[in-house]
Write a structure and sequence with these properties.
The chain is 36% helix and 27% strand. The protein is an alpha/beta fold. The protein has a single domain (24-263), classed as Aldolase class I (TIM Barrel). Strand 8 and strand 9 (171-176) form a beta hairpin. The protein is globular, with a radius of gyration of 17 Å. 46% of the residues are buried. The structure holds aminoimidazole 4-carboxamide ribonucleotide. Residues 40, 43, 73, 75, 78, 109-112, 130-134, 156, 158, 166, 168-169, 193, 195 line the site of aminoimidazole 4-carboxamide ribonucleotide.
Length: 272
């Protein structure tokens, strides 16, 4: 849909009267760096600024607002820091406290590099695990895991110029997002997180058409991320077939999107 045309609609209007089918979830993000909840610009580590020094309080405020999901990323792990690096130790402790404390469904990504890592998270109560770097290194291993845990392993398709980025977005692989996504879908993956790295954290608006095109080309249900600015982004994504959710971070921190107005677009898996 043309962005400007859609902006003519009044904000918040008619949120329920959409014809797209299937679940549509709003996933507020908690990105952990060194034990704090941070925001980055285009994923660059040096751009980090703390939005919540107490991620557990952050989680509690999201639950209070009525969120059903939370999207948690261990950034120190995604950047490939050593297991015993202080940031990773702090994040790990927090992550298990978040999962234990959460009444919300928790989706976790960052640094999951083996079946054992993924299984440990799933067994601890994490609903879905996102796998990016390991997926590029060992797609067959990730596909096998996805078949063992249907719907609970999410491919991290973080895109830079249409190619899959890895290692905390510091490296770009040779895989095209579309081709790689198609291959993963054939191997048993059902969901992918599609992040446009260049847009992430910039409030530039999200490209709903691109997310929809990826869903159509691959058959994967797409969680869209990167650049969400306001409720119009949420409205457009909610109307895009194949898009099953959206991750929101910066827009909530900056106040250009209110969580409540976004939550009005949530849709359960099957409509009555
Ligand atoms: O902001 C970043 N630099 C960043 C980020 N948010 N780098 C990776 N990630 C997220 C991906 C995905 O959810 O969006 O981490 C996950 C992938 O991590 P890994 O370690 O499996 O590549």
């Amino acid at each position: 849909m043309n962005r400007n045309a859609s902006r003519a609609l009044s904000p918040g209007a008619n949120a329920q009267a959409v014809s797209a089918e299937g679940a549509f979830d709003i996933l507020p993000a908690i990105d952990l760096l060194g034990g704090s909840s941070v925001r980055l610009l285009q994923g660059k580590r040096e751009s980090a600024h703390v939005v919540h020094a107490d991620p557990l309080a952050h989680l509690a405020s999201l639950a209070e607002s009525g969120a059903r999901w939370v999207h948690v990323v261990d950034l120190d792990a995604a950047f490939g820091d050593a297991l015993d690096a202080p940031g990773r130790v702090a994040n790990r402790t927090l992550l298990s406290a978040l999962v234990k404390a959460s009444r919300l469904r928790v989706e976790v990504g960052g640094g999951v590099r083996s079946p054992a890592d993924a299984r440990a998270l799933l067994e601890a109560g994490v609903e879905r695990v996102i796998v990016g770097t390991w997926c590029v290194k060992d797609p067959e291993g990730v596909m096998a895991l996805a078949r063992a845990f249907p719907g609970r392993i999410v491919a991290g398709l973080d895109a830079v110029d249409g190619r899959v980025a890895v290692q905390g977005w510091t490296e770009t692989s040779a895989h095209s997002v579309e081709e790689f996504g198609r291959r993963l879908a054939l191997g048993g993956l059902t969901h992918a997180l599609f992040t446009e790295v260049e847009r992430d954290g910039l409030l530039s608006g999200i490209d709903a058409q691109k997310a929809g095109a990826l869903a159509e080309a691959t058959g994967l249900s797409i969680l869209a991320s990167g650049g969400v600015r306001d409720v119009e982004d949420i409205r457009m994504l909610s109307r895009t077939p194949g898009v099953c959710g959206v991750v929101v971070g910066k827009a909530l921190a900056a106040g250009t999107l209110m969580l409540q107005e976004a939550l009005a677009f949530q849709r359960p898996a099957s409509l009555p």
